[in-house]
Write a structure and sequence with these properties.
Elements: H1 4-12, E1 27-40, E2 43-54, E3 65-69, E4 73-84, E5 89-93, E6 99-101, E7 108-109, E8 112-116, E9 125-136, E10 153-164, E11 170-175, E12 182-186, E13 189-199, H2 211-214, E14 217-222, E15 224-227, E16 230-233, H3 237-248, H4 256-266, H5 272-286, E17 288-289, E18 292-293, H6 304-310, E19 312-313, H7 315-328, E20 334-338, E21 357-364, E22 367-371, E23 391-396, E24 399-404, E25 414-423, E26 429-438, H8 439-445, H9 447-450, H10 453-463, E27 470-479, E28 492-501, E29 506-508, E30 511-515, E31 536-538, E32 542-551, E33 556-560, E34 565-569, E35 572-581, E36 584-593, E37 596-598, H11 603-617, E38 620-625
Parallel strand pairs: 1-10, 7-18, 17-19, 25-32
Antiparallel strand pairs: 1-2, 2-9, 3-8, 4-5, 4-9, 6-8, 10-13, 11-14, 12-13, 15-16, 20-21, 20-23, 21-22, 23-24, 25-26, 26-28, 27-28, 29-30, 30-38, 31-37, 32-36, 33-38, 34-35, 35-36
Helix pairs in contact: 5-7, 6-7
């Protein structure tokens, strides 16, 4: 298995981490109902019913019940029932059996969860939950409609109904649904209904879009809303931005002593970029990230003065604090709301629930900096993987504007390796390794910087294809600059190591079978899928370049060696070359994977390409002792 630090990157490409389920599905949603009755802009009753037949252990998690609540969202009605395959009721679940948990990764939060855990005693089994939530003062959006929540789960029948007063306009947006919602007027109000049936199970396929982009889904939100005493409009992103700006307006004030300190740091510097760097370093040294979701639904940031005093804040508070510091030294910046999970926002459907994170944008002449204030250990302006290329909303006094963050070119996500292998006649070898990781590849190796020596050694042993590797020395450091972020390398992690192996090569009689590439451990190829449904999706492109020198023992000749390889495909290119100079073999591998979406008909070519690369990295040469 590859090392944990490499798992995330490899999972996107050559390490197959998804498990393809057997043809049988895991569960059937018999009925999914959402019924919302909104009687005013500040109050709604939300009734839910979920009835699911669980067919095997892989669907067992669907037997659990969990419901998010808060002081503004109260669970008022609950009941549950379990029936076996014959329809016989074997368990009734009462509201008194629910448990409450306030556990959260956040330091402080208004929300809590009511839950019930149930383990099916047999399969198949059908479990039905019905519950009602009473919501008030927080109707910035209505429950999302998503009856199909996982792979290998089909849906027989699902419906969504929302009733609201006549003067209360409700908007909606659809994803992967080709059936229109029906609107009906009545004396009591307007009702919006959406019904779906016979949704086939989605199959998990390697190198496909995220599940969230494949699911049938619908969003509902009011055009004008009242939210924790504030009023706003979601007519479009411009209006959303005006409301969001109202939440941060006036929160920039800082203590006078802090203002003087900021000017002492920045006023003597020549450029805005230097001033930003000085304040960004101050943010790193004086604050830490702690999520706080209290008040106004967790939407409003803590005032900059509060973050300054306490030394901690969430993404909103830290970004707003950095904005306040920049404003004090005369540098304007914009508050940015963004999603770390959804690449695209709905262009024509503004809603607060599409975003879950806040960063800061600093426009400079000829450049724009994007500051991740929750992790200022990252190089200033580095656009990390969870936000690169994502849509976002730029919030300013004039309102919201849909923007898209930049993304690094595939070739700049570089891992460059220089390896020297001195082979002994008994199969032992001394290996020196120098690797540099840049941009996204740098990001996945950051954990090495914080590990102690013992953990670093364990990680390196998993990273290399060196049997019984003994590490003599390992140095890890971070280099680089913060300039020209998208044009070059904002930072680099380098690994400089020396290791030995007593059986690097396999000895058979007078021959040595020698691996030619001691890295790229854990590569594999995806399975054949005769009826693939999804196009090939490669989220992250990268470039791996290897320069390997293998010193052959005296008295040995090459009996067999691999041939040079050059492969070019739309989704990637690969080359392998080997040259001999005296007793030295000089080997070069170069793999460029290209991010993008490719037609599913090319999947067989993709498999062949992967096999070629995986095979090339696993090649061996055969050395034979002269005179034998």
């Amino acid at each position: 298995m590859p090392s944990p630090s490499r798992m995330k990157r490899l999972s996107l490409f050559f390490l197959l981490v998804v498990t393809l389920h057997a043809p049988a599905q895991n569960a059937v949603v018999e009925e999914s109902v959402v019924d919302v009755v909104c009687d005013s802009p500040t109050h709604a009753l939300q009734h839910f019913k979920e009835s699911v037949t669980i067919l095997n252990e892989k669907g067992a998690s669907l037997a659990h019940f969990v419901c998010s609540c808060s002081k503004n969202d109260k669970l008022t009605i609950f009941k549950g029932q379990v029936t076996d395959g014959s329809g016989r009721v074997i368990r009734k679940i009462k509201e008194s059996e629910l448990q409450r948990t306030d556990y959260s990764p956040y330091l402080a939060i208004d929300d809590y969860k009511m839950y019930f855990e149930y383990t099916p005693p047999v399969y198949p089994i059908t479990i039905t939950y019905e519950w009602t939530i009473d919501s008030h003062d927080n109707l910035i959006e209505f429950p999302r409609f998503c009856p199909q929540t996982d792979y290998d789960v089909s849906v027989k029948k699902a419906s969504y109904r929302l009733t609201a007063p006549k003067d209360f306009t409700v908007r909606h947006a659809l994803q992967n649904i080709d059936k229109a919602a029906v609107s009906e007027a009545s004396p009591s109000g307007n009702t919006l209904t959406l019904e779906l049936s016979d949704l086939p199970a989605l199959k998990q396929e390697p190198y496909s879009r995220p599940l969230s982009e494949r699911l049938p889904m619908a969003w509902f939100a009011p055009t004008d809303f009242t939210y924790y005493g504030t009023h706003g409009s979601l007519k479009d992103w411009t209006e959303y931005g005006k409301w969001e700006y109202g939440l941060i307006k006036g929160s920039e004030a800082l203590p006078e002593a802090v203002c003087q300190e900021l000017h002492q740091l920045a006023d003597g510097l020549n450029t805005d970029r230097e001033k930003i760097a000085a304040l960004y370093q101050r943010l790193e040294k004086t604050t830490r990230y702690v999520a706080v979701l209290l008040g106004i639904g967790g939407q409003k940031p803590a005032p900059a003065a509060s973050v300054c005093k306490s030394g901690f804040g969430d993404c909103k508070g830290l970004s707003n604090y950095m904005r306040a510091m920049l404003k004090e030294v005369g540098i304007p910046s914009n508050y940015i709301t963004i999603s770390t999970t959804n690449r695209r926002l709905l262009k024509d459907f503004a809603s607060a629930g599409q975003m879950n994170h806040v960063i800061l944008q600093v426009p400079l002449q000829g450049d724009t900096l994007w500051l991740e204030c929750t992790n200022p250990q990252l190089p200033m302006g580095y656009v990390h993987e969870d936000i690169a290329g994502h849509d976002a909303i730029e919030v300013s006094e004039t309102g919201g504007r849909l923007v898209q963050l930049p993304i690094y070119s595939d070739s700049t996500n570089l891992m460059h390796s220089k390896i020297h292998i001195r082979l002994n006649p008994d199969g032992a070898a001394d290996v020196t390794l120098l690797q540099g990781y840049h941009n996204w590849q740098y990001e996945h190796y950051i954990p090495l910087l914080k590990m102690d020596e013992k953990d670093r050694h364990k990680t390196l042993q998993r990273m290399v294809r060196v049997p019984q590797a003994e590490i003599r020395r390992m140095d890890v450091k971070e280099d680089g600059t913060t300039d020209s972020v998208l044009g070059g390398f904002p930072a680099e992690v380098t690994v400089d190591a020396e290791l030995t192996s007593q059986r690097y090569a396999t000895v058979t009689g007078q021959r040595l079978f020698v691996p030619i590439c001691p890295i790229h451990n854990g590569y594999s190829t995806p399975p054949t899928l005769p009826n693939r449904q999804e196009d090939i999706y490669l989220q992250m492109g990268f470039l791996d370049k290897d320069e390997i020198t293998l010193i052959i023992p005296e008295g040995y000749v090459i009996e067999a060696s691999p041939k040079d390889i050059t492969v070019e495909q739309p989704f990637g290119t690969f080359s392998f070359t080997m040259k001999r100079e005296g007793n030295e073999l000089h080997i070069k591998n170069c793999l460029l994977m290209k991010s993008g979406t490719y037609d599913k008909q090319h999947y067989p070519q993709f498999i062949d390409f992967m096999k070629t690369v995986s095979g090339a990295y696993s090649q061996k040469i055969v050395l034979k002792k002269q005179g034998s």
